Amino acid sequence: MMASRQLEYFRAVARELHFTRAAEALRIAQPALSQQIRKLERQLGVTLFERDNHRVELTPAGAALLEHAERILADIAAVEDEMRGWAEGTRGRIRLGGARGLTARLARLLVEFAEEFPAVDVELREMNTEEMVAGLAGGHLDAATLVRLPQEEGRRLDSLPLGEEPLVLITSVSAPLASRYRVPVAALDGADLVCYAPGSAIREIILSALAAAGATARIRYETREYSTARAMASVGLAAAVVPRSVAEEPGRPVGVVRLDPEPAAWAPSLAWPAGRRPSPALAAFIDFVARRPDLASVGP
Question: For the segment 52-104, what is each residue's pLDDT rounded down to a tens digit?
Fold first, then answer.
């Protein structure tokens, strides 16, 4: 039977793909680590690593085990956190993925949450949707604010809606479109556009809306930040599609135009794995967000 320590040893080598570095990270001797990996391979009857004097690589069996090891070790850590929470009151750690554009709202929410639950540490990491979904599946995140919940993840994730707001087109105030209240999406055919990096849910919403209208915009600039897209649009480098609240942020003025038909709304939600019972810390956070929609929700 495998022990959690063996999985920790295996994961370290799989992450480093180097036995000496993995041994240093684990603070054990390299020969002892190699012996443990060989023992694990004998137990399982498979080769986990292809290794020679120059490289270490995961075998297909090793890659499959790594997925299980990440999940199992995350579950063990969650159990330990939960037991500490029950023993010591609501305390622990929450690894939270944050959607870009929600940072200011999350900052206000986290300040008030910390006042009510000072023994809970929240680690916030800004990520795109693809990164957050992977983090939740792999046990690297406890919860995340997803801009759009992927349909295929509906059964694997529980979620709490955080409101919604429309996506609007922004341009410089001197651009021809700035004088229009509403324009058809098809009018963006051939237009210069600021778009977002692959893995972003809002990128997929924009590209889907363009494709449905038979339009192909020229993506001249790519960014991971709404603020950067707004700045580029404001000086006339390209148009951008952003949540309405981003268009209304303080800064250089922009022309704000509604699109017809309107793309899918920007509708973030707080999501967490459905297959695991939330730790006391995470349960407290979910309940806090539900009780204080004024702090995290988008929209008017």
Answer: 878 999 999 999 999 999 989 988 887 777 677 666 657 788 999 998 778 77
231, amino acid identity: A
Q: What is the rounded distance in angstroms from the CA atom of residue 246 to the CA atom of residue 167?
A: 9
pTM score of the predicted model: 0.65
Tokens read off for 44: 């399982």
Length of the chain: 300
Computed from CA positions of residues 295, 226, 187, 130, in that sequence, does the dihedral angle turn out positive or negative? negative
Q: Is 150 helix (H, G, I), strand (E, B) or coil?
A: coil
**DSSP one-letter string for 31-98:** HHHHHHHHHHHHHHTS--EEE-SS-EEE-HHHHHHHHHHHHHHHHHHHHHHHHHHHHHSS-EEEEEEE
Q: Which residue has the tokens 């023992």?
A: 39
At residue 119's C-alpha, the angle toward residues 115 and 125, to 5°, is 80
**Dist. CA 170–CA 257, nearest whole Å:** 6
- Residues 247, 230: contact at Cβ < 8 Å? yes
Q: Give Cα 40 to chain centroid, integer Å.
A: 33
